[in-house]
Write a structure and sequence with these properties.
28% of the residues lie in helices and 19% in strands. The chain contains eight helices and 14 strands. The protein has an eight-stranded mixed sheet. Strands 6-11-8-9 form a four-stranded antiparallel sheet, with no helix packed on it. Strands 13-14 form a two-stranded antiparallel ribbon. Strand 8 and strand 9 form a beta hairpin. Helix 2 crosses helix 5. The two termini are 35 Å apart.
């Protein structure tokens, strides 16, 4: 999987869009190098996350909130990959979009909670949410161009999307299984942007049934297609199964941290097959559209977060 340099977004957009799109068509994943996000600010957000996860368990559990675990803290032993018998070895924190009072999505997108024990948390993590949200919109421009669509077609569909930044902590895992850091799964959303994949463990299931390790160079984003966009493109862009395996013996004492940003459609967006993605040689798998929120609720139940 050859990295695609984000510097070409401005200098040679068509070539960037083509390389990115071909990687998605082949793997469902792409590595975006030279993303340009300030490393010191990424480090600050990660430091705030680490400070929170280091707090006592009873303090962290005070931030478990609401149905679906869509905001605040989710402890170990909750999320389980669809169809899996064993829960994942991880804890995480969710940040969502900040809405103005009275916003039309207020009932569907709860307010954020912020840990008072880590004063820098809100500013540092809030910045990361905004930076990845903006980057995701740029990547959607390239995806649209690759699909032969107008470059800004996705902009109104995700303008107030129910997107989630997940701060993930995988503790040291001094064993092989049956529990692993993240069981084989596909993402629910439109696209996922992942920082923190430099620590080994992320693997992608290739077409031939082999698991391919993804170990990008520092300063890279790993980006993958989610089930919502797979559905909208009628599988032109696949949502590929992936997992995070437990570390090899020499790394079993090391924790793993990452910060996936799950970019979502607006809750009332109707997911339907995009122009040019169905035809005589590619029958439409999804003739019945579904709203993004209905799709999300269905999938959250499947992974035991509802």
């Amino acid at each position: 999987m050859e990295p695609v340099s984000f510097t070409r977004f401005a200098s040679d957009f068509e070539a960037f869009a083509g390389d990115l799109g071909r990687s998605f068509e082949r793997y469902g994943f792409a590595v975006v190098a030279d993303h340009g996000l300030p490393q010191d600010r990424i480090d600050a957000a990660l430091a705030a996350a680490k400070a929170f996860f280091a707090l006592p368990e009873e303090v962290k559990r005070a931030y478990v909130t609401g149905p679906g675990h869509q905001r605040g803290y989710t402890p170990f032993g909750v999320e389980t990959a669809k169809g899996a018998a064993h829960y994942d070895l991880k804890e995480f924190w969710h940040v969502g979009r900040e809405l103005a009072p009275g916003h039309r999505y207020e009932a569907l997108m709860p307010p954020n909670v912020w840990p008072s024990e880590v004063p820098a948390f809100r500013e540092a993590v809030g910045w990361l949410y905004g930076a990845l949200d903006a980057m995701g919109r740029r990547l959607l421009e390239a995806i649209a161009a690759h699909l032969g669509l107008e470059r800004g077609v996705f902009a109104p569909q995700v303008s107030d999307g129910n997107s989630i930044l997940r701060l993930l902590h995988y503790p040291p895992a001094p064993f092989d299984g049956p529990h692993i850091r993240a069981g084989a799964h596909e993402d629910i959303n439109v696209i996922t942007l992942l920082l923190g994949a430099e620590e080994a463990g992320l693997e992608v299931l290739d077409r031939d049934g082999r698991w391919l390790p993804i170990n990008p160079a520092p300063g890279s984003l790993v980006v993958n297609i989610g089930d919502m966009l797979q559905r909208a493109t009628n599988h032109v862009l696949p949502s590929t199964t992936h997992r995070v395996v437990n570390p090899p013996p020499e790394r079993r004492s090391a924790p793993r941290y990452s910060t996936p940003f799950f970019l979502h459609y607006n809750p009332d967006h109707l997911i339907e097959t995009l122009p040019g993605c169905a035809g005589p040689d590619r029958p439409d798998r999804y003739p019945e559209p579904i709203t993004a929120d209905a799709f999300l609720q269905q999938r959250l139940r499947e992974i035991r977060l509802l």
